[in-house]
């Protein structure tokens, strides 16, 4: 199951709590509002009945009613009764068929079918001998229905509010986490390009004093400072490697020259002394090879290792390299055979020296780790827009836990199988050469069955031979 991103998690959390808060607020509001609606309805009923006495007068012994008494204001119907419950004037709402007894100053709830009503009676003395009752009637059901409409409207608006909250929350979260995304992208680019000069780049934005910085911007600034320190350390290491390699070349060359000179004298040394000189010479040659490889990688790291590309028939070149390695295999005396499967006339823009070094390193590794009387297969062909090749051996293979590290410098998957002259730099050079030509190199290996090192180069328009 795919993990939920932090942006989505924060958005869902923010939306959930906002929706919960909104629902709780609306529930409290509706509960209070329902009571307020009923209380307001009762208050309007009382006020309307009390104000209606202004429309009643006694003139010449007769009751006179103003026309406003008949109007329905504030949804209140007014009617006038004598003390014997005899209807005199006014209006009764449609649907109210009951005739409850008079109850002075009391608001009563009357159920009439499916509707509820508030009824309020108030006595009014017109004279010493005559008292009338003003009755006000208003519908509780109508008041509640109007409130119900408001509730339904709120329930319709609620999902839209939740959706708007989610959208706003997502945009806000995305904007807040944008610096984290920038940090992640920068780290990925550094890993892909091995370029420690890259920086996140937002740490110095804003005011000059660095105020109003949040924790993410502080993290970015700290990360940039760490990258600066790592780059400085890496540059010093590169410079040290380059300087040390240069300084070591001269004494090693002198040792080799002196060994050659002394070994050229036939009778100057005993057999034991000569064998010791041969050992010194072999060790010095191993040191010279390692120094040469270190200088190569140091120049490559510093961007000072140029490529001199030219159009080369890599089919013929690969065949020639395989034949030379077969000669070395024959001299080794272990009966290893180098077989080739090469598509003829494949042309490519390539640095010939580097291509030879890459293939020699792969083949020398295959020879080193092949079993006696084993077989090495060299394959080269063209697949669409790519030139592909591989070197396969049928030796002991590479342990699975070592495959991810074999391209690292000085790494040796199995020291017990490694010759003293092997420093663990060859595959690092192979990787750099392939990538410097815009290609790639990979490995597949099964312990006990052998390994396959494959390389790919872009063919482009350079594959066919130009006329």
TrEMBL record:
Quote a single Gene Ontology cellular component term. Answer: plasma membrane
Residue ranges constituting the HAMP domain according to the UniProt record? 174-235
Q: Which residues cross the membrane?
A: 12-32, 153-172
GO MF term set: phosphorelay sensor kinase activity
- Key words of the record: Kinase, Membrane, Phosphoprotein, Transferase, Transmembrane, Transmembrane helix, Two-component regulatory system
- One Pfam family recorded for the sequence: HisKA
The family database entries (InterPro entries) matched by this protein are listed as:
HAMP_dom (IPR003660), HATPase_C_sf (IPR036890), HATPase_dom (IPR003594), His_kinase_dom (IPR005467), HisK_dim/P_dom (IPR003661), HisK_dim/P_sf (IPR036097), Sig_transdc_His_kin-like_C (IPR004358), TCS_sensor_his_kinase (IPR050428)
Q: Where in the cell is it found?
A: Membrane
Q: Which domain of life is it from?
A: Bacteria
Enzyme Commission number(s):
2.7.13.3
Report domain Histidine kinase positions. Answer: 243-461
Q: Which reaction does it catalyse?
A: ATP + protein L-histidine = ADP + protein N-phospho-L-histidine
The first-level EC class reads transferase
The protein depicted here goes by the name histidine kinase
């Amino acid at each position: 199951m795919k993990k939920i991103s932090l942006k989505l998690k924060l958005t869902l959390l923010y939306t959930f709590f906002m929706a919960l808060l909104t629902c709780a607020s609306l529930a409290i509001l509706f509960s209070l509002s329902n009571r307020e609606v009923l209380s307001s309805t009762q208050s309007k009923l009382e006020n309307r009945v009390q104000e209606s006495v202004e429309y009643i007068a006694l003139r010449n012994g007769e009751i006179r009613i103003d026309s406003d008494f008949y109007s329905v204001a504030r949804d209140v119907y007014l009617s006038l009764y004598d003390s014997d419950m005899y209807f005199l004037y006014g209006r009764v709402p449609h649907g109210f068929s009951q005739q409850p007894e008079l109850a002075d100053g009391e608001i009563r709830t009357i159920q009439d079918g499916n509707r509820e009503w508030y009824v309020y009676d108030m006595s009014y003395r017109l004279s010493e001998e005559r008292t009338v009752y003003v009755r006000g009637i208003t519908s509780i059901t109508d008041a509640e229905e109007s409130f119900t409409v408001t509730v339904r409207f709120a329930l319709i608006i609620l999902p839209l509010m939740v959706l708007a909250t989610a959208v706003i929350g997502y945009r806000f979260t995305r904007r807040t986490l944008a610096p984290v995304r920038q940090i992640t992208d920068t780290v990925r680019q550094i890993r892909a390009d091995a370029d420690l000069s890259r920086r996140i780049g937002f740490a110095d934005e804003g005011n000059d004093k660095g105020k109003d910085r949040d924790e993410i911007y502080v993290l970015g600034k700290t990360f940039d400072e760490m990258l600066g320190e790592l780059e400085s350390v890496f540059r010093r290491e590169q410079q040290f490697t380059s300087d040390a390699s240069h300084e070591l070349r001269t004494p090693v060359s002198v040792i080799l020259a002196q060994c050659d000179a002394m070994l050229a004298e036939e009778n100057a040394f005993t057999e034991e002394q000569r064998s010791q000189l041969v050992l010194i010479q072999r060790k010095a040659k191993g040191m010279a090879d390692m120094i040469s490889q270190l200088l190569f990688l140091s120049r490559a790291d510093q961007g000072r290792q140029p490529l001199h590309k030219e159009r080369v028939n890599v089919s013929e070149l690969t065949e020639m390299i395989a034949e030379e390695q077969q000669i070395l295999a024959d001299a080794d005396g272990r009966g290893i055979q180098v077989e080739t499967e090469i598509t003829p006339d494949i042309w490519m823009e390539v640095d010939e020296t580097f291509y030879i070094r890459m293939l020699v390193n792969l083949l020398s590794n295959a020879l080193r780790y092949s079993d006696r009387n084993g077989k090495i297969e060299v394959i080269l062909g063209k697949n669409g827009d790519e030139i592909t090749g591989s070197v396969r051996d049928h030796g002991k293979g590479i342990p699975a836990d070592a495959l991810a590290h074999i391209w690292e410098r000085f790494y040796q998957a199995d020291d017990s199988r490694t010759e003293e002259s092997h420093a663990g730099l060859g595959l690092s050079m192979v990787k750099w050469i392939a990538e410097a030509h815009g290609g790639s190199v990979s490995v597949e290996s099964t312990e006990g069955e052998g390994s396959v090192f494959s390389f790919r180069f872009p063919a482009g328009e350079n594959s066919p031979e130009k006329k």
